[in-house]
């Protein structure tokens, strides 16, 4: 649905150059909620603004719904009109709502339709329909100043949907909201994604947002995407920083000469007594150092950190048994200088 190739943005100001995006290849599938996470300055805002060409990239391409946006605009009236038309199918929601305080809620939602020269009666009908969809049917005549933060963001979302977009871009839409309101806005975005088949790209610096609604995620650092994939793929990637942060499992080994492994359970494997089978089959004492269950991307996932007696080399067979059961096993500590904490054995273990 959205693809960028080699997307680069260099800002030049006062003789200085800042590379905000450094060759970003992004791939967002139709109908998914895709989260881009990263620390301040990583390039998230620049990326999302390049997706609808609010910001023109220095080089690279942006394709949305099969249309190369970078080929549009900047080339005379017809090209600019084509870019405006393409943009009307991409809605955007902002952190600080960007509502016009002198207009009623309904008039704010109608604004993009006015720009598209939709007749007054159709505009009103559409705006009221959208306000109903976001749960604000009774606030049509109110002014933004009379609304709570969450209600203002609902108006922002209704306005973003006015042009019947296929894609919704959300620029830190919940950063200015309290946790409960954040949850209700995320639920609304998820409902809209499912009801309307809307593809949602959101940027955030909060892992909880990704955890709550995203099907896929990308981690940005220094203008680059350093990891991306579906939540399940990320969880199955040994050493993935996103997986570790999405689903941390703690627990320190207190004894010497032991092997510590993180075991991730997905789907059927989560309901089988694999650890007790392991203990019985190999007659090993398994200590559980930490464990957690969570729902990620709408699916139940379990993680457990366990400790086996002996060094990694002595535990190759039991670890192989766990992998044969369809579990993902990451060796955290093999208690030897050359313990394969980040080496091919873990890659083999990726399911
Ligand atoms: N208009 C601009 N002119 C010059 N430099 C800019 C401009 N916009 C952004 N930058 C720089 O580009 C880099 C990426 O900024 P960007 O706002 O995209 O990051 P971000 O991940 O969204 O951060 P935040 O979460 O703080 O908004 C930063 O170093 C920033 O200072």
CATH topology of the largest domain: Rossmann fold
Q: How is the biggest beta sheet arranged?
A: 6 strands, mixed
Mean pLDDT, rounded to whole units?
88
CATH class of the largest domain: Alpha Beta
Bound molecules: adenosine-5'-triphosphate
Low-confidence residue ranges: 337-351
CATH superfamily of the largest domain: P-loop containing nucleotide triphosphate hydrolases
Global shape: elongated
Query: How many structural domains in the coordinates?
Result: 2
Helicity range of the residues?
Answer: 25-40%
N- to C-terminal distance? 26 Å
Structural class: alpha/beta
Number of distinct beta strands: 14
The portion of residues forming beta strands comes to 25-35%
Order of helices and strands: EEEHEEHEHHHEHEHEEHHEHEEHEH
Describe the structure.
With 351 residues, this protein is an alpha/beta fold. It has 2 domains: 2-235, 3-Layer(aba) Sandwich (Rossmann fold); 247-349, Alpha-Beta Plaits, CATH 3.30.70. It contains 12 helices and 14 strands. It has helices at 44-51, 76-87, 105-115, 120-133, 149-160, 179-196, 207-213, 231-235, 241-246, 274-282, 316-324, 344-349, and strands at residues 2-13, 16-28, 33-38, 59-64, 67-68, 90-94, 167-171, 199-204, 216-221, 224-230, 258-266, 287-296, 299-309, 328-333. The protein has a 6-stranded mixed beta sheet, with helices on both faces. A 4-stranded antiparallel beta sheet has the order 2-1-4-5, with helices on one face. It has a 4-stranded antiparallel beta sheet with strand order 12-13-11-14. Strand 4 and strand 5 (67-68) form a beta hairpin. Helix 3 packs across helix 4 (120-133), helix 3 packs parallel to helix 5 and helix 5 runs parallel beside helix 6 (179-196). Residues 337-351 have low confidence and may be disordered. The protein binds adenosine-5'-triphosphate. Residues 11, 13, 18, 20, 38, 40-46, 205 line the site of adenosine-5'-triphosphate (ATP).
């Amino acid at each position: 649905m959205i693809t960028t190739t080699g997307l680069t943005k260099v800002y030049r100001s006062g003789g200085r150059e800042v590379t905000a995006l450094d060759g970003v290849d992004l791939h967002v599938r139709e109908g998914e909620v895709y989260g881009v996470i990263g620390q301040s300055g990583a390039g998230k805002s620049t990326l999302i603004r390049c997706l609808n060409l609010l910001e023109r990239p220095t080089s690279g391409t942006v394709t949305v719904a099969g249309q190369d946006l970078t080929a549009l605009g900047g080339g005379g009236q017809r090209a600019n009109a084509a870019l405006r038309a393409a943009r009307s199918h991409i809605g955007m929601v902002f952190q600080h709502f960007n509502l016009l305080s002198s207009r009623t809620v309904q008039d704010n939602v109608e604004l993009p339709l006015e720009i598209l020269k939709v007749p007054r009666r159709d505009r009103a009908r559409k705006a009221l329909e959208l306000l109903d969809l976001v749960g604000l049917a009774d606030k049509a005549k109110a002014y933004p100043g009379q609304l709570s933060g969450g209600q203002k963001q609902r108006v922002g979302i209704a306005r973003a949907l006015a042009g019947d977009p296929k894609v919704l871009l959300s620029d830190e839409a919940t950063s200015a909201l309290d946790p409960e309101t954040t949850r209700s806005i995320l639920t609304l975005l998820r409902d809209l994604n499912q009801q309307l088949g809307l593809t949602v790209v959101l940027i955030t610096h909060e892992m909880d947002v990704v955890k709550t609604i995203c099907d896929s995620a990308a981690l940005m650092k220094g203008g680059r995407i350093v990891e991306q994939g579906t939540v399940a793929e990320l969880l199955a990637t040994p050493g993935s920083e996103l997986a570790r942060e999405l689903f941390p499992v703690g627990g320190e080994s207190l004894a010497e000469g032991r092997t510590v492994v993180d075991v991730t359970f997905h789907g059927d494997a989560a309901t089988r007594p694999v650890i007790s089978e392991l203990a019985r089959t190999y007659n090993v004492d398994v200590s559980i150092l930490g464990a957690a269950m969570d729902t990620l991307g709408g699916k139940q996932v379990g993680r457990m950190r366990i400790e086996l007696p002996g060094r990694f080399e002595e535990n190759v067979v039991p670890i192989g048994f766990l992998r044969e059961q369809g579990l993902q096993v990451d060796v955290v500590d093999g208690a030897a200088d050359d313990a394969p904490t980040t080496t091919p054995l873990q890659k083999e273990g990726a399911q």
